[in-house]
Amino acid sequence: MRISRSKIEIYLDCPRCFYFDVLLRKGRPPGFPFTLNNAVDKLLKKEFDTFRTTNERHPLQENLSPRFKPAIHPNLEQWRNPFSGGIAFLHPQQQITYYGAIDDLWISDDGEYAVVDYKATAKDNPVTELPEWAISYQRQLSFYSYLLKQNQLPVYPRGFLLYATALTNRTDFNQELKFVSNIIEIDIDESWIEPVLHSLHELVESPIPPPSSNGCIYCQFVEMRGQSINMI
Fold first, then answer.
1. What integer pLDDT is reported at residue 93 of this predicted model?
2. Which pTM value belongs to this model?
3. Can you give the pLDDT at residue 153?
4. How far is it, in rounded angstroms, from Cα 230 to Cα 232?
């Protein structure tokens, strides 16, 4: 069995939704595609790859301490692509493969690797710190760092969000968006990972799905839909 980082996030949100998604193949309805965000993601990868090919720092990395530059690693393209396996780890006790797809990998002058994730948004002012609602971003970077360690890489104790903000306080559009990009450093916290994987594995082994979580809008929708059908 293979379980992705995004499925773990569903488990943390609602174990019942996870059970139906992973074990019964009845997933939540997909969201709308973020095509502009995907475009920013693709262009940032191309831009940093340009500096990677010359083994140079990107200008956004110049003020980081310690110093970082785009990492050159033979598995990077695989780790970026979930369809080719992503970065994966077979848990020896559970015999479950956990995996994810990273946006980028940087390496410090000390030889430590750091996970990087690209984020894009649109606001009047650039995003310069982790939003209060975005704890899942810290979990994302932490889990990817955990996977790097399981693949025997020395890992820097912080990860990076490269946040590109399209400014909306301009007076004209002129067929272009003006972006300001900032690097936000995030402390890596892996203390939650093994306990969560343990409880997740127990659920995978269970023949009975758990009850719905309080506040899960998907479970509430299914319940209300069922009640409506019974009234017809």
1. 93
2. 0.91
3. 97
4. 6
Which residue(s) pair with 164 in the sheet? Answer: 120, 181
Question: How far lies 11's CA from each of 57, 67, 145, in Å?
Answer: 38, 36, 19
Q: Where are the alpha helices (DSSP H) in the chain?
A: 5-13, 15-18, 35-53, 76-80, 135-150, 193-204, 217-231
**pLDDT at residue number 223:** 78
Please say whether the beta carbons of 94 and 2 come within 8 A: no
The pLDDT assigned to 226 comes to: 56
Give strand ranges (E) for 47-157: 68-70, 87-91, 96-100, 104-108, 113-123
Q: Can you name the CATH fold of 2-231?
A: Lambda Exonuclease; Chain A (3.90.320)
Q: Which two tokens stand for residue 177?
A: 């968006």
Which contacts (CB < 8 Å, 24+ apart) does range 129-137 have? Answer: 129/184, 130/161, 130/184, 130/186, 136/9, 137/161, 137/186
For residue 61, give both structure tokens: 């990395």
Please enumerate in sequence order all residues whose Cβ is within 8 A of that of 25, keeping only pairs 6 or more positions apart, or say none: none
231 — pLDDT class (breaks 50, 70, 90): very low
Whole-number Å distance between alpha carbons of 10 and 18: 6
Structure-block tokens of residue 29: 């309805």
Give the pairing of strands 104-108 and 96-100.
Answer: unpaired
Q: With bands split at pLDDT 50, 70 and 90, how would you rate the model's confidence at 225? A: low
